[in-house]
């Protein structure tokens, strides 16, 4: 059990005040008070952040495991790009439905409980996908997976916001995105190795990681004392009417647009590289791992520094323009190595957009962090629902069409940000 300096100082002061002469008595007194204070105050912030990060890492490691084997897995079941789009859409639709409730319940009942329930859904969904022999079972599996995401992500983002001090919030969200990216770095590599044994084994392994994350959460996560109780009233009907919905309109639209464009590209990346350059699961693993490493480096070492000198909306604009250029480069590339090299840098923009948008939500949310996380998750899910459906159908017509669609949608996102900044400027002049 770890104790912070503040807790120890309190105990030491109590012992000195009581002037206990017996050293053994003092020792037992300190131990007793440590336990009491620990129960009341919860774990230190850094320890809690580490647990949350590790939790998220296991989940996204599990998600990353299955990416390289999707082309082989779908081919084994006789499925096409549009079928993959439907599977991803089923995941996103269920996430979209549950996210508002997940965010609200996270504030109302406690984020730990919601996280744990979500992890159970994750484990079950992965085991079902591993054992599935029909498209119906796969659909049900993805629905449960969507329920998982709609609970875990609002719970984790809300808890990080609750325990972070204001000046560290952007940094902590950047670390969260880096941890997510790290899961994608290791996941595909491990998944490609496991696929050599069986293309279903990565899904079983992912389910096992979900169980591990659940156990860790139950044992080690401590609900911040001031969250469940203090947020309880925020989601009563009369309180919902007090929310300034206008401030959320632009981030909601932007979230949907970005998720639509990003999911269109990311969902079919493995199928795209397999069809265009005959990439095997091992090649796909290398491409995703390389891209993940680059994204993690930028998130860890540069994101926080960028955010000190610019606003979230300006930063997202530049990240979108960068992504447009790189995706277009991927379209015109045809050789094995050119596609591989572009794959190493194509995810950087995406990986920087996510924490910037999450931080934007958090800054305008105030003490409704779970609510904001729920909105973010809901409209991300809406984009993730529509994007893969359209992209999957376009992929069956021409493998390049989903990439063109992503470019168009991202440019539309730039236009949305430009309009919002103009409106903000006009409001500031009026004030």
Characteristic key phrases:
mainly alpha; 431 residues; 18 helices; 83% helix
Write structural notes for this entry.
The chain is mainly alpha-helical. The protein has one domain: Growth Hormone, Chain: A (Up-down Bundle). It has helices spanning 5-18, 23-41, 45-66, 70-76, 81-109, 111-131, 135-163, 169-195, 201-220, 237-240, 246-267, 269-277, 281-307, 312-332, 336-346, 348-365, 369-397, 401-430. Residues 1-43 and 227-242 have low confidence and may be disordered.
Rounded to an integer, what's the Rg over CA atoms?
23 Å
The count of helical stretches stands at: 18
Helix content: over 70%
The ordered H/E elements are HHHHHHHHHHHHHHHHHH
Question: What's the rounded overall pLDDT mean?
Answer: 76
Q: CA-to-CA gap between the ends?
A: 52 Å
> What count of structural domains?
1
Quaternary structure state of the chains depicted: single chain
Strand fraction equals under 5%
Low-confidence runs of at least 5 consecutive residues? 1-43, 227-242
- CATH C-level: Mainly Alpha
Q: Which term fits the overall shape?
A: globular
Largest sheet: none
Q: What is the CATH third-level topology name? A: Growth Hormone, Chain: A
Question: What class would the helix/strand composition place it in?
Answer: mainly alpha
């Amino acid at each position: 059990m770890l104790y912070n300096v503040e807790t120890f100082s309190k105990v030491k002061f109590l012992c000195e005040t009581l002037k206990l002469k017996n050293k053994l008595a003092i020792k037992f007194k300190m131990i007793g008070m440590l336990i009491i204070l620990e129960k009341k105050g919860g774990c230190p912030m850094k320890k809690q952040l580490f647990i949350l990060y590790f939790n998220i890492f296991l989940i996204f490691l599990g998600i990353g495991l299955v990416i390289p084997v999707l082309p082989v897995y779908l081919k084994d079941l006789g499925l096409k790009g549009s079928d993959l789009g439907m599977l991803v859409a089923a995941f996103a639709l269920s996430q979209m439905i549950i996210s508002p409730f997940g965010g609200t319940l996270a504030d109302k009942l406690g984020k730990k409980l919601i996280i744990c329930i979500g992890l159970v859904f994750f484990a079950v969904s992965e085991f079902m996908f591993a054992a599935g022999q029909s498209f119906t079972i796969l659909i049900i599996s993805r629905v449960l997976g969507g329920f998982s995401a709609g609970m875990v992500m609002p719970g984790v983002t809300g808890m990080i916001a609750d325990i972070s001090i204001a000046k560290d919030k952007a940094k902590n969200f950047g670390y969260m995105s880096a941890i997510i990216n790290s899961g994608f770095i290791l996941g595909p590599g491990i998944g490609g190795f496991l696929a050599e044994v069986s293309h279903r084994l990565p899904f079983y392994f992912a389910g096992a990681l979900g169980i591990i994350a659940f156990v860790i959460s139950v044992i080690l996560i401590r609900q911040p004392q001031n969250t469940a109780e203090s947020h309880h009233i925020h989601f009563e009907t009369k309180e919902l009417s007090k929310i300034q919905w206008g401030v959320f309109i632009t981030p909601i639209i932007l979230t949907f647009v970005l998720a639509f464009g990003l999911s269109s590209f990311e969902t079919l990346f493995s199928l795209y590289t397999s069809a265009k350059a005959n990439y095997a699961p091992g090649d796909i693993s290398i491409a995703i791992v390389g891209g993940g490493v680059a994204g993690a480096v930028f998130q860890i070492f540069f994101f926080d520094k960028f955010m000190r000198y610019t606003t979230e909306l300006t930063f997202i604009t530049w990240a979108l323009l960068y992504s447009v250029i790189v995706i277009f480069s991927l379209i015109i590339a045809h050789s094995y190595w050119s596609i591989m090299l572009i794959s190493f840098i194509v995810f950087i923009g995406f990986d920087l957009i996510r924490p910037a948008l999450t931080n934007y939500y958090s800054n305008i949310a105030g003490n409704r962090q779970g609510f904001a996380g729920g909105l973010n998750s809901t409209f991300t899910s809406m984009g993730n629902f529509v994007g893969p459906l359209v992209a999957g159908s376009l992929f069956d017509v021409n493998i390049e069409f989903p990439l063109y669609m992503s470019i168009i949608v991202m440019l539309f996102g730039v236009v949305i940000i430009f309009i919002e900044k103009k409106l903000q400027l006009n409001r500031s002049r009026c004030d």
